[in-house]
Amino acid sequence: MDPLWLTIAFLCGFLVRQVGLPPLVGFLLAGFILNALGVEGGMTLQVAADLGVILLLFTIGLKLKIQSLFKPEIWAGTSLHMVLTVAFFTAVFWGFTHLGLSLFTDLDLPALLLVGFALSFSSTVFAVKVLEEKGEMSSTHGSAAIGILIMQDVLAVVFLTVSTGKLPSPWAIAVLVGLFLVRPYLYRIMDRCDHGELTILFGFFLALVVGAASFEAVAMKADLGALIIGMLVANHPKAKELAKSLLGFKELFLVGFFLTIGLAEMPTWETLGLALVLTLLVPFKVILFFLLLCRFKLRARSSLLASFSLANYSEFGLIVGAVGVANGWLAADWLTVIAIALSLTFLLAAPLNSLGNGVYHRYQQLLLRYEARGRHPDDLIEPWPANIAIFGMGRIGLGAYNFMVERCGTSVIGVDVNEAIAEEHRNKGRNVILGDATDPDFWDLVKNRGGFGKLELVMLAMPKHRANLSAIEQLRKAGFTGTISAIAMYDDQIAELRDKGVHAAFNFYAEAGTGFAEHVYEEALRTGVLPSVCEVDQS
């Protein structure tokens, strides 16, 4: 890759991160700058972009439970949203045909419907990046957004198959059946892989060969194959480890994806103006997603944050537009318009997602009016009297929970944003509930049920630093005056947590050795095999 690309991409990503925006905004800007400098993307950048998308879909599959796609808010919500969005956009564009705009004057009704369909999708890449950075992939709104995006991807595949007249090979069914048949053998191979480079290489093999290449060979989309193979191995005990191992590679290759968006086309004044008009239509998509999700009994906050994650156009819009251009249904300038509109919605949606909780808190009373009666079973807030609350019931949270229960008894509760994890702990007899420490509604309920009189200690064991910071902010806004502790991965994060008023910040990498030594010492003391040079407290 050209050093100029790396330099400009890094500088733009670094600068926008300093003002609180996701680095992906900087990568988009870098693409525009490189475009203005006359740089062309070329095959290397496109390959990197394709690899990033394939790995992204594979890692989504590793975390996805297929039954979640059959929830009404996913399949019905996606279908209703797409139909209503296409109808609305088509009506607006039909009005534009009477204004003399050159790009609309030659469009008949099928072409207008095609443009509306292309713009009805939201970006999977953008939503996953934003949700991962905030640690909200497993939250109710994160799960809803991901489910909707996957349903959109499935509909896009159906359209591409029909519109190109290129049906999947008769061998496609054989490939699908074959993947199910070889799954036990893939599990055995994963069992025998170590925890290092072999596991990473096997992940690439699954995503690029077993998934992507096999689907391409039978005229199906490569990234759909990566998603499906990820879903097939998602129940393996090492699936989570595999997703973490591929994280750095996926992030690096996705830089190429965002650069290619900015490098797509140089705009004219007309295409830029039309892209701005299309950007102004995005609020309709957001409002419609919000209203539909509320009708399916999600809380207003969950509906709002899921809608913000979907507040953009999609890379699939470019693919649909390319099909239209190739078949002579659309003028080539439409690809430029969609690419610019896609970039602009990314730039606007990034800060919108960062400010999501603040927007909800400011307009909470207005938004609550749109909640349906009853509550979605995945979006409940449960009562929980306890003196000690541990948020994030992964390995670190579980260790903290077991220790506190041993020392403090039944006055300890675990809280996790993932319903599957919470249910697994409950099945093992642990006092764990579904909850989101970054959710102001959660803390409002605590206040309404007697305030913080009983709660004395909050332990934040969530793996994402931004999630822990957001939880501290919500605790302070709710008026909690007890003790707050939190984990972090790096020393600068420890300093930031202390600046926010955390009483105890724990670097679980740096202090893991201390915990290990304490455990060994206590076991040796208990069994009477303590080395003679060690001091024993006689008190």
UniProtKB/TrEMBL annotation:
* Bilayer-crossing regions: 42-62, 74-97, 109-131, 143-162, 168-186, 198-215, 272-293, 305-326, 332-352
Alphabetized, the UniProt keywords read: Membrane, Transmembrane, Transmembrane helix, Transport
| Entry-linked InterPro entries | Cation/H_exchanger_TM (IPR006153), Na+/solute_symporter_sf (IPR038770), NAD(P)-bd_dom_sf (IPR036291), RCK_N (IPR003148)
Tell me the Pfam families matching this sequence.
Na_H_Exchanger (PF00999), TrkA_N (PF02254)
Which cellular compartments is it found in?
A: Membrane
The Cation/H+ exchanger transmembrane domain covers which part of the protein? 7-349
Span of domain RCK N-terminal: 388-507
Q: What PANTHER family does the record tag this protein with?
A: CATION_PROTON ANTIPORTER YBAL-RELATED, SODIUM/HYDROGEN EXCHANGER FAMILY/TRKA DOMAIN PROTEIN
- Family according to the record: Belongs to the monovalent cation:proton antiporter 2 (CPA2) transporter (TC 2.A.37) family.
* Protein name per Swiss-Prot or TrEMBL: Cation:proton antiporter
